[in-house]
Amino acid sequence: MNLAMGLGMKKDIVHVIDFGLSKSYINSKTKKHIPFNEKKRMVGTACFVSINAHIGYEQSRRDDLEGLGYTLIYLVKGLPWKRLKAVDEKDLRKKIHKQKSTISVEELCKGLIEPFGDYLRYCKTLLFQDKPDYNYLKKLFRTHFLKLCPNNNFVFNWSHLKKDKSIKALEEEKKVEISNKAIDESGSKEIKAEENEKLSNELVEQNIISTKELDDEIPEENNFNEKAKVPEFELTKNSPFTRVHKIMTLRVNNPRPILSISKFNSIPADNNELL
Question: I need a labelling partner for 262 at 20 to 30 A (CA). Which of 2, 24, 186, 226 fits?
Answer without folding.
Answer: 226
